[in-house]
Amino acid sequence: MTINERQSLYVQPQFHTVPSFYGRQFEPVRLEADLFDCQIEGVFPEQLKGTFFGLGPDHQYPTFEDDIILNGDGSLLSWRIEDGHVDFKSRYVQTERFTAEREARKKLFNAYRNPARDDPDAPGLMQRDNTGNTYAWYFNGRLFALREDSHPNEIDPVTLETKDVFNFDGALKSTALSAHGKVDPVTGEWWAFGMYAERQWAGECALIVADKNAKLIREEYFVAPYPGMMHDFAVTREHVIFDIQPFRVDEERMKKGGQFYAFDPDQPSLWGIMPRDGSTSDIRWFRAPGVVCGHIMNAYTEGKKVIVDAPAAPGNSFPFFTDVAGNPTDIELGNATITRLEFDLVGESDQPKVTRIHGAVGEMPKIDDRFAMMRYKYGFFRGADGLNRIDWDTLEVRNYPMVAPNVLHECTFVPRYEGAAEGDGWLLAVVNHAATNRGALVVFDAMKIEEGPIAKAKIPYSTHMTFHGSFAPGVL
Ligand SMILES: [Fe+2]
């Protein structure tokens, strides 16, 4: 591209609300804050001791009008809970691109995963896409800000200062590590993947496994049947499940300044299943037309069947991406319902049995992580109608309504004590109240969510959206 062509794509950025999910718009917040002793409502349980981390996107500089929430700079929130008191902190993730933009005092990296429209002053960075904005991942005493196209950013869990980019001490070959990982509750391993691991945009993907000490022990490659999106995946005690979603990457479109992904309504999602103790050459692909998934709730193997539970929509759940023809898609078709997919490993069908759970409309699923990869009873998720819990034995869904102008973000489960029964504990989540520009960390008893929050720690502003978070038990 010539300089003239590049400049023709360049328009002076402004502060805009940013297109988000469900057609919502988010205002940049841009605040780094410390609040000692939040105002408390209700009572924080004595046993609830630790730090809740949330991470989400928050543009620090003015953007193009069509910039999207996924391109926001990572901003961490921490809520340190001890003896009924809560201290709050927020800090940006100091990525290479964040630092370059701060030095330039303007946005340099204008479009999501596409350098074609970068500011002429933008430096060429290996970690150009690393906003560190997706998952506050607490793993065995260490905190990482994850972003699926890049390497993790290690964060000091007490000060929230950014330490360095982490690549398993130089061992990781993949240029990407998924924002969603799975911790094996038996071995303590960190299972992940790297989609577009070589930045070839051909669907090349790495399976990545680290031991409980964050030492890389496995990295194997395969190529997905088409260059789609994989944001999350599933692991059971016996199998690994890769899910390729119908959002196409097209390098030619990107070169013209177009979006990184485009929804392909004619393409089914593809689900590749391999034995955990096998190799990526053993992957068997299944197809699931009309099942579009961003996140996985949990998965397990039962005999010759693999069961995967996930929010699934019939259409495009990323409404800020057009379809492959450049047309906007129907926001309604992006609404997800909690869905059970059953894959018969010995049957002849190349499609799973799909069961949508009546009354379970929502996304951002979480579980009691001690029951990951195995048969489990409880799933938690947020919907437009508030916080929800599904009982997989009875298919009963319980709800606590939190509707607009309240905005409920993803919840995280914390067990009451180490050996507590599944689901016996608390759900922690950030709630913003847009009309009053106030926010809070709210705590529910996970077995009594319909009774409402038992405690709130208030902050005097409405935070940015938090995508994904985790809880560090004990005093850090
Ligand atoms: Fe996610």
Number of helices: 3
CATH architectural group: 7 Propeller
Q: Beta-strand level of the residues, as a percent range?
A: 35-45%
Shape: globular
In helices, the fraction of residues equals under 10%
Number of domains: 1
Mean pLDDT value: 95
| CATH structural fold name | Methylamine Dehydrogenase, Chain H
Which CATH top level class fits? Mainly Beta
Low-confidence stretches: none
The beta-strand count equals 35
Q: Which ligands are bound?
A: fe (ii) ion
Largest sheet: 5 strands, antiparallel
Q: In angstroms, what separates the terminal alpha carbons?
A: 50 Å
Tell me the radius of gyration.
21 Å
Give a brief rundown of this model.
With 476 residues, this protein is mainly beta. Helix content is 4%, strand content 41%.
